[in-house]
Amino acid sequence: MKSTERELKEIVRQKYAEIAQKGIDENASSCCGATPNSNKVYSIMMDDYSELKGYAKEADLGLGCGLPTAFAQIKKGDTVIDLGSGAGNDCFVARHETGPEGKVIGIDFTPIMIQKARENAERLGLHNVEFREGDIEHMPVNDAIADVVVSNCVLNLVPNKSNVLKEIFRVLKPGGHFSISDIVLVGQLPEGLKNDAEMYAGCVAGAIQKEEYLQFISDTGFENIALLKEKTILLPDDLLTHYLNEEEIAQFQKGNTGIYSVSVFARKPGNKPKLNLEMLSEVKSQNQCAPNSGCC
Question: Domains of the chain by range and CATH?
């Protein structure tokens, strides 16, 4: 029986509350099968933030699937909203770009994540970064206040992605833009992956088709839509064995289904000068966590 939207959100809330009580080292150490019930499905897609200015290790729980702030073209004085802000990682990188004259608002619906993020901001002395508890389908912010919206591996966790995109459109200023990293599909997942709550909370089962994802963005009214980075996610055998039998694994690996981390840019129509997408337009393809590769 399919879970309702409310049930799916509660699954995500509970899983990420558990993860919030661990650090990146503990989460990452379970990647590629360190423990029988590991968090590897959550950390398998993460990118390395450590070279980005503003990075704070204590705020990095290893939950992302890209580097959306790297493509966000954030300027000094901008107001930035981060959707699904977790312990504050992307907010602190964005704060480096806005400077003290800007403002960063992180939104998350997991109370312990909000608590950790606030503690991190206080420890770092970043008083123009705030964290608000709320559902990104109903953001606790006013209309047209953000210059930039960023999000890292979060929209795939929301059952109604169209609602989130409408909210992003609402909170952006005319001419504002978003930079989002997310998981998308090409082809259909096996039922054992698609219907598993752990895989949903781990960003795989909640992903939708890439073309559908981009169409949602277009239908919402955004322009200058650009796919800036695409990375193949290969699930290792020792992860798949938790959800599929040997025959199903073989069929899945021989099939045409692809799981991708993508970074997408789009702009709300308005009077602001259009940003330079040429410097961002190269689509990079790379494999991560290939079976039997000794990854992580």
Answer: 5-269+276-288 (3.40.50.150)
